[in-house]
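Side project, low priority. Logging it here so it doesn't get lost.
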Amino acid sequence: EVAQTILSRVDGELDTLAGMSVDMLCEVEGVGTGKAVSIAAAFELGRRWFSECGTTKRHKIAGPEEVFRMMYPILRDLDSEECWVIYLNNSNYCLGKERISIGGIDSTVLDSKVLVRKTLEKKAVGVILVHNHPSGNAMPSAADISRTRAISNALKACELSLVDHVVIGSRNYYSFSDERLVSV
């Protein structure tokens, strides 16, 4: 009955439930702090498991839709911007992914020198940048476009490539590659 009550409160949307705070969960009749923490922990474990699945099995990244499916569970409920990098080999197989910066509500700083160094350390030849927009609007800002071009140039100087930069909004994404703002 408690589960039915919780699900009806979020119109059956698990995405909405996953984003509820412990305090919000405690507002549901029959849910105390212990149950609320257990529910929040279960969603966090699910996010982490899903995140690890993308790096424990080597798979080819076929396009921005796949990047979105891989990164959306990690980035969807954040209150601040985070930038992640997916490292690729010559055949676009994922060598790993990691968070490279955490910012504020509407921006994050990404140092191209750090990105180049980490890419070389991973023995990758290409990268896909991914960052979220907590506002929900996936359209890149002028700063996003400018910074992406600068990062692409820094990578090219070391014979590395920026395969794509995917901005994740609420349930949607923007691909720089699709819009021809980076060369594939």
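Brief comment: Residues 33-56 form the longest helix (24 residues).
Revisit when time allows.
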